[in-house]
Amino acid sequence: MFTTMIPLLLAGSPLLHGTAPKSQDPADRPSNVVVVFTDDQGYGDLSCFGHPTIHTPHVDRMAAEGMKLTQFYVASPVCSPSRAALLTGCYPKRVSMHEHVIFPAYDYGLHTDEVTIADMLSEHGYATGCFGKWHLGHRDGLLPTDQGFDVFYGVPYSNDMSQFHRKPGNNYKHSLPLMRGKDIIEWEPDQGLLTRNCTEEAVAFIDEHADEPFFVYVPHSMPHIPLYASEAFEGTSPRGLYGDVIEEIDWSVGALRAALERNGIADNTIFVFTTDNGPWLPFKADGGSAGPLRGGKGSNHEGGQRVPCVVWSPGRIPPGTVCREVATTMDLLPTIASMTGTKPPGSDVIDGHDISPLLTGVQDATSPTESFLYYTAQGDLAGIRRGKWKLLLEPGTLFDLEIDVSEKWDHAQQYPELVEQLRTEAIRRDQAITAQARPVRTVENPLWNPEYRVNPTEYPGDDGER
Question: What is the CATH number assigned to the segment(s) 15-366?
């Protein structure tokens, strides 16, 4: 079994769009890309990552036939910034999407000048579809079809951004829209059908485009609360409704894989399964598990930003392997570019790196990430990881993550010089990102006119992401 260690991480500077790493031999390149990105699923919420009662046979099979990444990070512990990072290969602050999440009354989103994975692949002739939760701007001009996707079916923001606000006297007027492209096809859809319907739309897209290269992005709305499962799954898991939801998402993975196999294109595809941040712990049975990790969603402890990741690509990724190197969602864009033989257009700086040597089992491959910055849900610099060491700036705690994944033992007093080195490096890197930050896009022509401008700190139900 191929495994990797991380006593030291190799130096790696931000990449430029247009300077993609050396690609594989064309005969070995996958033509198709599938990314499943769940919402608020914890590190311990898959049976292949250790959950004793949630049963996830389809993801487990992908892990057995592909690679499990055990030190895989998202760039933010909350939704919108994390999604921006995955699609652009950038720290959220670099694209000015770092200040918490987008609420229905907001009029900004990810700038359409940013190059997303969909933009990059579309430029090279890929059919592109997004099926699920977007949450990067819901005004006309900020939707998936403005960001490189040919097709969008799903909801534009979190599934709780209407129901939880229906309190006497608060005058909250927003509802949850189900959209196809830029058209609202239903208000307040049956959320018990969201996972199934988005999956079926994605499967239909695969069937339609099986004879051409495609990118299928499935950012499920679940297990973000409120939890819903279809009739076929509700009440079937010993873990309760949360387990039902995760097991239906696992069914979704199986349905997507079955579509690839039915069309004879599984061997020509790279399939990534991961999640946007850690579990929503305050909701107890309705929240997930971070396994051995400390903290959860909204936290800069490992449970907030280290997430499960499985990558499957028959014939390219060695089966049954585990990668223990540090990698991040920001690495997906340059890695997909390398593995598909495409490259990001333009010349903007990104923060991700090509990790295809790790995924393909190159002997002695190590992470190209020199250091990883942690940011709070509000976008403030919170900490840094370099090698095995993690420093949280406040309260100044230092953890050795190779022996203490639960962050129980503070070494700050033992290594004061290391603490100052890491603090200095984190501040220097953050200042550079801040100086180079690119703007969001503001759109003043909403698809619907909000009657109430919500203050995200006023109501505990406001996605809880603050």
Answer: 3.40.720.10
